[in-house]
Design goal:
Blueprint lengths: L6 H7 L4 H17 L4 E6 L3 E7 L9 E6 L6 E5 L20 E4 L8 H18 L11 E6 L17
Parallel strand pairs: 1-6
Antiparallel strand pairs: 1-2, 2-3, 3-4, 4-5
Length: 164
């Protein structure tokens, strides 16, 4: 049962504050509860810890993800790899690039759960349509896809100089 296989993610989350870990685990449960047949892909990058869900083992098929950015605020994005292709009638998603769209989620109380469920469903269907070879479909795996040896250090802002 992949949802219960949380050891890898907990290992990577150990460096983050408790409230950030709680947010990440809530977002993970949110997606797993909707798509238990999806695969969880974990990327421990220089700048962020990212977790995506895909019907295959390929990054290009990720339909939704979250990323926790290393830095002062530990900003968390809940995003869509092919977000530019989603309807987003509520105009919730941020980004104007060719592909990725996201929400900034630093407070779970403000997470628009019902609207995001609709976007996740649309993203899942969109992702499945991109799978050209049905042999690529796998079900319910958790995979660590990348571990960066170097991590961005948390930088504290220097205090502002007081005017004289």
């Amino acid at each position: 049962m992949p949802k219960e296989e949380v050891a890898d993610l907990l290992f990577f989350l150990r460096m983050f504050p408790a409230e950030v870990r709680e947010r990440a685990l809530w977002l993970r449960d949110f997606v797993w509860d909707l798509y238990p047949q999806a695969n969880e892909l974990i990327y421990d990058n220089y700048n962020a810890l990212a977790v995506g869900w895909s019907p295959t083992e390929k990054m290009s098929h990720i339909f939704c993800s979250f990323a926790i950015y290393r830095g002062v605020n530990y900003n968390t994005h809940f995003g869509f790899y092919w977000g530019s292709e989603l309807s987003d009638t509520q105009k919730l998603l941020i980004g104007d690039g060719k592909q990725y769209r996201y929400l900034l989620i630093n407070d779970l109380a403000a997470f628009p759960e019902q609207e995001i469920k609709k976007l996740v469903e649309e993203a899942w269907e969109n992702s499945l349509a991109k799978v050209k070879d049905p042999k690529q479909l796998t079900h319910g795996k958790t995979m660590v896809k990348m571990i960066s040896d170097n991590k961005r250090e948390k930088k504290l802002k220097a205090p502002k100089k007081q005017p004289r």
